[in-house]
Amino acid sequence: QVQLVESGGGLVQPGGSLRLSCVASGFTLDYYTIGWFRQAPGKEREGISCISISAGSTYYGDSVKGRFTISVDNAKNTVYLQMNSLKPEDTAVYYCAEKYTNSWYAWLQRPTAWGQGTQVTVSS
User: Fold this and answer.
1) What are the counts of helices (DSSP H) followed by strands (DSSP E) for the chain?
2) Nearest to 78, CA basis, from 100, 57, 51
3) Rounded CA gap, 71 and 10, in Å?
4) What whole-number distance in Å separates Cα of residue 121 and Cα of residue 105?
């Protein structure tokens, strides 16, 4: 049974940093693409970053490029999202999502499974 559990969200001031974690269970990350979507109030869900384990490639959306970094710990079956230089517009619920593919594009179009989400609020 596939399960994704996110943690690490919270309240942070503009310019601050947070690190999100997503622990995957029920499968190993090999041959999967896994990453993060986010959804702000009144907005559509946005794919912001993913990593394709077998392809060794990463994807970043324009809104987070240069500020966020995705990484994976295969031994812990965990994916991280390091978020730096946070802005109020980064406020959203962040969801971990996976797809059995080595294509970031396919992941972006339709992930297979989702976590429950973790709230990130950037405010002074």
Assistant:
1) 1, 11
2) 51
3) 20
4) 28
Length of the chain: 124
Among candidate residues 20, 30, 31, the one with its CA nearest the CA of residue 106: 31
pLDDT tens for 56-84 read: 899 999 999 999 999 999 999 999 999 99
What residues have CB less than 8 Å from 22, skipping those under 6 apart? Answer: 4, 5, 6, 7, 34, 36, 78, 79, 80, 81, 96, 115
Please report which confidence band the pLDDT of residue 101 belongs to, taking 50, 70 and 90 as the band edges. Answer: very high
Predicted pLDDT of residue 25: 92
Alpha helices (H) along the chain: 104-109
Token digits for 20?
Answer: 């999100």
| Structure tokens given for 24 | 């995957």
Give the number of other Cβ atoms within 10 Å of residue 114's Cβ.
15
What 3-state class would DSSP assign to 107?
helix
